[in-house]
Each structure stands twice: as C-alpha cells, then as structure tokens.
Write a structure and sequence with these properties.
This protein is mainly beta. Helix content is 8%, strand content 43%. It is built from 2 helices and 15 strands. Strands 1, 3, 4, 6, 11, 12, 13 and 15 form an 8-stranded antiparallel sheet that branches. A 7-stranded antiparallel sheet has the order 2-5-14-7-8-9-10, covered by helices on one side. A hairpin with a 2-residue loop joins β12 (174-179) and β13 (182-188). The longest helix has 10 residues, at 9-18. InterPro entries: Alginate_lyase_2 (IPR014895), ConA-like_dom_sf (IPR013320). It comes from Lolium multiflorum. Keywords: Signal. Residues 48-220 form the Alginate lyase domain.
Length: 224
C-alpha cells in the first residue's frame, strides 16, 4: 500500500458508499436523536479516576494539560511507548480507572475536539476483547472519524466540539456510537470478559507527526 493510502481509506469509503444502495437506505432512515443517556445513571468521578498514560520518558506536563475544564492530550509520532517494556505505538491517553466492567450496559459520554492536521490516530476506545485488545476504537483519518480504519462514523470532525456517546451492551454484544445525539454506528462486540474506557491520542497507521485531541465534561454512566 502506498504511503498514507490508509489515511484516506474512510474518505474513499464515502465515495464508494455514496454510489451504493446502502447510503440510500441509511439516508432514508430517520435520524435517531433521542437522548442516549435516558435510563442511565452517571457514576461518581474523581480526579483519581482519570489515569494518565503518556510516553514513559516524558513528564506529564509535556504531553498533557488540564485547566479544570478542558483536558488536552498530545503525542509525537517519534515518542516512546507508555511503558518501557511495551512495544505499542506512542500514546497520551486517559484510562478511566475504577469502573472496569464485565456485564451490564455502560456508556461513555464526553465532548471531543480534534484540531486539523491530526491524523492516523485513535481518539477513543473500549478496551478489552476476545481475540483483540479492544472491542471498539474510533480513529481519525484526515478529518474523518472511523470505526477502526474501515467504517465511516462522521465525515467532518476537525476543529469543532462534538458530543460523543458510546454505549456498550455486554450481554447483547452490541456497541452504539452517537455524535451530537444522533446514532451514527451500531456494531457487534468483540468478546472479552473485562472492559474499560479510554480517550486521548494513540498513534495508528500512517500517523501524523503531531497528534492532539481535547476533551471536556467526561461522564461514565450505567444503565439502571
């Protein structure tokens, strides 16, 4: 594959889907704009629930800032992994601590912002899967938000605040993603017996040299 080709995969997908009956059917369906948090209760979060993972040789302030409202996380493609023994790609992520789950219906809610130029990066994930490390990842490629690197979620994500809700029904093996209150994705789970939420920046294929995302009003909710 030519360099940066994967970065355009979701953009190309827009063209393919636009000429298919799938988009016609999807466009004909009335947007689901009901409140995705109906029937859920937010859990209590303290700052100790926000565990920072950053390149192991960098101080937290060199890759992360929090002004009491907005959490800004950034990483360089040349950075070290988050642990000396790790062979994973560079990341600066918040791992939501204290609310790992193996059953029930759980939800992540937050407002995200991705500045233009950030590409080839995961900005949010549901960790834990059967044969894979994760059961859901949301990637950004050139302003397009994707489910992993294949399926379109939102085609215009740069330079704006968007509200993200991710619902994980463990027993039902189903994940649903909402952007600004509208259902954008519904996919099957990937197994696994322990899960938790993460957000920030985690380099993927053909990552940009600098990656950043910003977050505010983070909540974790559980279905009543």
């Amino acid at each position: 594959m030519a360099p940066h080709a994967l970065s355009w995969i979701c953009v190309a997908l827009l063209v393919v889907l636009a000429s298919s009956s799938y988009v016609g059917a999807r466009g004909a369906r009335a947007p689901k704009t009901s409140n995705p948090t109906d029937g859920f209760t937010a859990v209590s979060l303290e700052e100790s629930n926000f565990e920072l993972q950053r390149p192991y040789n960098e101080a937290s302030g060199s890759r992360y800032s929090f002004d009491g409202t907005v959490r800004k996380l950034w990483v360089l493609s040349s950075d070290k992994p988050h642990a000396r023994q790790s062979h994973t790609s560079p990341r600066t992520e918040i791992r939501m601590e204290g609310y790992d789950y193996s059953s029930g219906v759980w939800q992540f809610e937050g407002y995200g912002y991705v500045p233009s130029g950030t590409s080839g990066v995961s900005i949010m994930q549901v960790f834990g899967g059967g044969e894979t490390a994760t059961t859901l990842m949301l990637h950004v490629y050139n302003g397009v938000l994707c489910y992993y690197d294949s399926q379109l979620v939102e085609d215009n994500i740069y330079d704006r605040w968007f509200k993200l809700n991710v619902v994980h029904d463990v027993e039902g093996s189903m994940l649903t993603v909402f952007i600004d209150g509208e259902e954008k994705l519904r996919v099957s789970g990937r197994g696994g017996d322990s899960h938790y939420f993460k957000f920030g920046v985690y380099a993927q294929n053909h990552d940009s040299s600098f990656m950043e995302s910003r977050w505010k009003e983070i909540k974790i909710l559980k279905k009543d």
